[in-house]
Amino acid sequence: MPRQTDTRTRARDEFARRLADCGYAGVSLDDIAKAVDVRKASLYHHFPGGKPALFMEVADHYTQEAAALLQSALATPGGLRDKLLALAASYAHGTYNSALSNQIYYAIGHLDDARRDEVSTAYVRGLIQPVTDLMAAAVSAGELRTGDPGFLATAFMELAATVQPASPQDSSAPSSADRLAQDVVDLFLHGAAPDAP
Q1: Is the sign of the CA dihedral 117, 57, 21, 85 positive or negative?
Q2: Cα-trace Rg, the chain
Q3: C-alpha to C-alpha distances, 68 to 41, 64, 76, 138, nearest whole angstrom
Q4: How many Å apart are CA 52 and CA 108, to the nearest integer?
Q5: Nearest alpha-carbon partner for 97 in 165, 1, 42, 29
Q6: How far is residue 2's CA from residue 188's CA, in Å, rounded to a whole number?
Q7: Would 20 disulfide with which of 99, 134, 177, 183, CB 3.0-4.6 Å?
Q8: Among residues 130, 127, 135, which one has the least CA distance to residue 151?
């Protein structure tokens, strides 16, 4: 049993890595089987639905992990700025895998309607709705101007996703990553205009 679990996990992780790098069309089960040192038939044993089934495993695992990171950031003590800093830092420190997230989004076009709905619903429930709820609470509390909380959530997440993780070779990486997170939050909360005199 441990070998089976290990094969599933290694196949899922290899598929995720290749999906982030090459997109759905660039991932083949032959390549996954070679990378995890199993026969292709073994992959079908673990994922009877083939490539779409393996993709679903990757999407589900990613969404659960990312939702846990998001919930941790949203549990940060303090106000809206503190929570947004924690969210932006997860991008800047490379904790949140933007490339994989984007490729999961693009890949759903290759799925049947039922699978597409399943991935989309889980993604919205786990990753979009909590940020939308944060924005709605901030609008209600007067921390943000009146606006559509869904738009505000999407705008912030898109802005945060543009932050590339700091290089691990850079000795100042943690401070530069934190600075990037602060810049994202300041841009979101205050815009790009200079401060009024």
Answers
A1: positive
A2: 19
A3: 33, 6, 13, 21
A4: 10
A5: 165
A6: 47
A7: 99
A8: 135
Name the H helices within the chain: 2-22, 29-36, 40-46, 51-74, 80-92, 98-107, 113-123, 129-140, 149-161, 173-190
pTM given for the model? 0.83
| Residues 88, 192 contacting (CB under 8 angstroms) | no
Listed in sequence order, the residues at least 6 apart from 62 whose beta carbon sits closer than 8 Å to its beta carbon are 16, 97, 100, 101, 104
Residue 142 is classified by DSSP as T
Residue 150, SS3 per DSSP: helix
Written as tens digits, the pLDDT of the chain (197 aa) is 445 568 899 999 999 999 999 999 999 999 999 999 999 999 999 999 999 999 999 999 999 999 999 999 999 999 999 999 999 988 877 777 888 988 999 999 999 999 999 999 999 999 999 999 999 999 999 999 878 999 999 999 989 888 766 555 554 445 687 888 899 999 999 988 776 55
Which pair of tokens denotes residue 189? 């909360």
